[in-house]
Amino acid sequence: MLDPKQLDDLAQRLASAMPKGIQMLQEDIGRNLRASLESGLDKLDLVTREEFDVQSAVLARTREKLALLEARIADLERVRAPTPTEAD
């Protein structure tokens, strides 16, 4: 999911923002913050940037195909539209 380096950096920044007296326990706090962040993020329904980009491309292609099919159906409906004599 997330890059472990990013998670470590975030945990380190949070630990370094603690008051000086608590910073002596910085390594332990850093590990605990990292574990807490990891646990919280694991509960979220996140995807990687790569997965997101792939699905965005698939969606774009699908939308293009849908637009072409809608135009084709509209053309077929115009061709098949009943003439005034057929409607009677």
TrEMBL record:
Q: In which pathway does it act?
A: Cofactor biosynthesis; ubiquinone biosynthesis
Q: Which Pfam families does UniProt cross-reference here?
A: BMFP
> Where is this protein found?
Cytoplasm
UniProt keyword list: Cytoplasm, Ubiquinone biosynthesis
Assigned GO CC terms: cytosol
User: Entry's NCBIfam families?
Assistant: UbiqAccUbiK
Which PANTHER family does the record associate with it?
A: UBIQUINONE BIOSYNTHESIS ACCESSORY FACTOR UBIK
Name of this chain's protein:
Ubiquinone biosynthesis accessory factor UbiK
Protein source organism: Thiocapsa marina 5811
Q: Which gene produces this protein?
A: ubiK
